[in-house]
Amino acid sequence: MNTKQTDLTYIVNTYGRFDVALQKGSGATYTDEDGKQYIDFGSGIAVNTFGTCDAEWVAAVTAQMNQMGHVSNLYYSAPQAKLAQMLCEKTGMKKVFFGNSGAEANECALKIARKYGEATGRSTIVTLKSSFHGRTIATLAATGQDKFHEHFGPFPRGFRYITPGNKEELTSVLTSGQVCGILMEVVQGEGGVNVLDKTYVQLAARLCQENDVLFMIDEVQTGNGRTGKLYGYMHYDVQPDVFTTAKGLAGGLPMGACLIGEKAEQVLAKGDHGSTFGGNPICAAGAVNVLSRLTDDLLTQVTAKGEYIRKELEGHPGVKGITGLGLMLGITTEKPNGQIAAECLSDGLLVLTAKDKVRLLPPLNISFDELKQGIAILKKNL
Ligand SMILES: Cc1ncc(COP(=O)(O)O)c(C=O)c1O
């Protein structure tokens, strides 16, 4: 059996896979099992911050593996401590909890909000329609899309979904006296690369402050340089009480983090939460490498590359509109996005979709040469 047949025989059929088995890669270029090459505009869904097999990142991770592999959270370990310090110093947050994924990072945020509201009897967590927060039962409940609420109920209660941009609704919900936290993505990724309005996000932050509600941002997809700022909320001149991140944090290794600001830094106490693998030295070493390379210069390049893609595609036949920030872009197209993605694949370009859009999330250090090659393929198939 080839890879595809073995996969289809033995792996639970939860993914709509593209018809290709990738075998190796370097940077933003992959090779499949038949030797065909692909430019990567997806980064493993915003994970491979510096592409695949980035030499500096591989060296950092390998050095840690050769020094010490997994240790449990019963002991202190330097990479985890160093990473937490870097995250806090770069964001003004006070404490970090490490997990293994975006869903786990959000699970932690939800627990913090519930415990924060406990003393005042407030347990409602507000999220936005079209959001996506993960696949665990609680993060599915937090996800504001009906289709994710099929089949797996009963879900935990206490979630309320509001319409992004509707300030009256936001105000009435956050002043209701029932809410302990609000969780939002500043650019909704899976929901269609929808950029939230600045005044809306700022109003949410102010109302949270005035009503003792935790202002929580899901930076799982928008984080770690993806939008041209270190974290997406930094475009909005707001400071979250809690934010979560994962995906690109460790540059290709599974890691999630929940960062907690002053207002909630004391909420979780010993025994309240935990994770076997969370923050393990190997993933932490990968993340330390990634974070140390997300310099202002790199972030400026992310913005420039995003603008370059926009300029190339805006007004191109078949393009109805472009949304997003930095290297997180959604293209509304005349042709069905699934057809475009399939045609790009057969021409050697990996792109993603989100709702009805073609979604681009290339590695942050993709070369202009690779960008040009990829855009030429995309343009041909739009
Ligand atoms: C904004 C957001 N939150 C949470 C998640 C869930 O992350 P994970 O798949 O790592 O659990 C995702 C994944 O796409 C996401 O985009």
The CATH superfamily label of the largest domain reads: Type I PLP-dependent aspartate aminotransferase-like (Major domain)
How many DSSP H or I helices? 12
Name of the CATH architecture of the largest domain: 3-Layer(aba) Sandwich
CATH topology of the largest domain: Aspartate Aminotransferase, domain 2
β-strand number? 17
Shape: globular
- Share of helical residues: 25-40%
In words, what does this structure look like?
With 382 residues, the chain is α/β, with parallel strands linked by helices. The protein folds into two domains: 139 residues, Alpha-Beta Complex (Aspartate Aminotransferase, domain 1); 226 residues, Type I PLP-dependent aspartate aminotransferase-like (Major domain) (Aspartate Aminotransferase, domain 2), CATH 3.40.640. 37% of the residues lie in helices and 19% in strands. The chain has a seven-stranded mixed β-sheet with strand order 4-12-11-10-7-5-6, sandwiched between helices. Strands 1-2-3-15 form a four-stranded mixed β-sheet. A four-stranded antiparallel β-sheet has the order 13-14-17-16. Strand 13 and strand 14 form a beta hairpin. Helix 11 crosses helix 12. It starts with a helix and ends with a helix. 50% of the residues are buried. The mean pLDDT is 98. The site of pyridoxal-5'-phosphate (PLP) has 14 residues, from helix 5.
